[in-house]
Design brief:
By secondary structure, the chain is mostly helical. It contains 5 helices and no strands.
Length: 130
């Protein structure tokens, strides 16, 4: 498996980790005060606020970023583009997504948008190798 393929797996797991922050962050909260409700997770998510709400939103954005990134990696590899370059850009994408999550949790909207754009640009750069 290539480094880029491992990055695809990492990109698929990042949203799970991100929402895990929101869920885990509520573990010590009483149920009536907003502790995670596994019986009604979507209703629970609708009631989030603060950094937990942003973690849930970062999870959703993580899923939204997946199709372009996965397609880019697969198509570039099928086109027999330079695998080292694909790997480098895929690692960069994962690093950008981690920074994105951090700035999202820190409530830095403008910086978050700039970082998000960097992630999209990285996926496009991989796709253009196809």
């Amino acid at each position: 498996m290539t480094i880029a393929n491992w990055c695809v797996l990492a990109a698929c797991l990042l949203p799970v980790v991100t929402v895990g922050l929101a869920k885990g962050g509520s573990a010590k909260v009483p149920r009536e005060a907003g502790r995670y409700d596994n019986d009604n997770p979507r209703i629970w998510a609708n009631g989030l606020s603060g950094w937990r709400q942003r973690a849930n939103a970062a999870q959703q954005n993580g899923f939204e970023a997946l199709p372009l990134f996965i397609a880019a990696v697969v198509l570039a590899q099928q086109a027999h583009a330079d695998q080292t370059r694909i790997d480098q850009l895929a690692v960069l994408f994962i690093a950008i997504r981690i920074v994105y999550i951090i700035v999202y949790l820190m409530n830095q909207g403008t910086l978050r948008t700039l970082v998000w754009a960097g992630g999209v640009a990285t996926s496009i750069a991989i796709l253009l190798m196809a």
